[in-house]
Each structure stands twice: as C-alpha cells, then as structure tokens.
Amino acid sequence: MEVHHHPHAEKKNFKEYFLEFIMIFLAVTLGFIAENIRENITEHKRARAFAHSMMQDLQTDTAQLKSYIKYYTYANNNVDTFMRILSANDPASIPSGKLYWYGLYGGAHGNFVPNDATLQQMKSSGSISFFKTMLGTEVAKYDRLCRLMLVNDEVNTDIYAEVRKTRALIFEFKYNEIANQIYKKNKTSFSQASIDSFVATNPPLLSYDKTLFNQYLELVRSRFMSSNVAYGDSLLKQANVLLTELNKEYR
C-alpha cells in the first residue's frame, strides 16, 4: 500500500504579509485620492460654468438696477416738490400745469425683476457649495437683498392702486398723458424746455378740493419711494461686489 505525502504549503513570513497589506493600502488610498481629484476637477468646472452664467445675470441686473434707481430718484424728487408747493399754497392758486407735472409722479411705478435663474438652480441643487466660503457668503447676501427688494415692491403694489384711483379724481387723464409723454421723450433726449413749457400751461383739473388733495398726498407719502432708492442702491452695491469676487475667482 502506497503512502501519499502531501506537500507542505509554504508559510509566509510577517514581512510578506506586511508588504501585501502596504500594497493593498496604497492601492485603496491612491484610488481614493484619484477619485477626489476627479471630483474636484468636475466641481471646479461646474463652478466655473455657474460663475460665468451668474456674471451674465448680474450684468443684466446691474443695468436694470441703475435704471430703477434713476427712475425712483427722479420720481421721489418730483413728489417732494409736489408736497412742498401744496403745503405752502392753496391748490387753486397754483398753476395747474405745475400740479399736473409734479403730481404725475405720485403714481410712479416700476418693479425690479432679478435675473436669478442661475442662482435658483444652484440653490436647488446645492451647487453653491462649489464656491469658496467667502464667495458663497456674498451670493447669499445678494439673494437676501433681492428677496427684501421684491417684498418692498410687493408692499407698494396695493398702495399704488389706491394712489392711481385718487389721482384719477383730481387730474384729467388726457393732460396726465401729455405730461407722461414728455417724461418718456426726455428719457432718450432730455429737454428742460419741454417741461417748463408744460408747467407754464393751465389745463383744467377735475377737482380743487383740499380734502381730496390731502388724501392724495397722504397716499403718495405712504409709498416711501425713498425706500425703493435705498433698496436699489444696496442691491446694486452688492451686485458689484459679487461681480468683482466672481471675476477674481473665475477669470
């Protein structure tokens, strides 16, 4: 009867086990590092694309904000003049052309609509985290100021409707429209002479009732147009800060 001898398996020493462990550890670590590098490169590319798109949105916003601020500054100054002349005089003693011109701006109306498609996409997808902390903070500041400005415009909407109703009881539409057309023409080619010419006229009013004028003034004052200018200024400054930071980070 034959006896079969089984070969003895060669035992690995500690050094060989340790070497295998090191090899596996290095492979896993390098794979992890490579994956992180790949993710960082991908995130940076996406962040750059978002930054470029956001800069385009901000450039559109700043152009809109400059126009918004200019309009409400002009309207607010004319409303101040309207209040001042009525505080010192009886409506019947004031040239009606002057009342029509300055009274027109009590009904000034214009909303700021942010171009925030990129920002909203980044918020919903959590992609703002692709930006560095400081840049993300500036984006959040801009977003907060946008929301505040939108709320301010919305609050003014109901008062604006009441202002228009009361204005229609005092001023005749066709003469209001003449004044409005002069304003529109002056936006592209300013002419103080055209304003002075209209102010010097004496178109009829629908009412000289002091109580009605007082009601109109109170409604106009409650609009706080200076707040539109203040919100617009703050948002414009933040837009420029954000544009500078985006340009610095993602040239």
What is the ordering of alpha helices and beta strands?
A: HHHHHHHH
Structural class: mainly alpha
Low-confidence stretches: none
User: How large is the count of helical segments?
Assistant: 8
Oligomer: single chain
Report on the architecture of this protein.
The protein is mainly alpha-helical and 251 residues long. It has one domain. The chain is 76% helix and 0% strand. It contains eight helices and no strands. The protein has helices at residues 14-88, 96-103, 117-125, 133-170, 173-188, 192-199, 210-221, 225-249. The longest helix has 75 residues, at 14-88. The chain is rod-shaped. The model has no long low-confidence stretch (mean pLDDT 87).
Give a brief description:
With 251 residues, the protein is mostly helical. The chain has helices spanning 14-88, 96-103, 117-125, 133-170, 173-188, 192-199, 210-221, 225-249.
Note the topology.
Elements (H helix, E strand, L loop, with lengths): L13 H75 L7 H8 L13 H9 L7 H38 L2 H16 L3 H8 L10 H12 L3 H25 L2
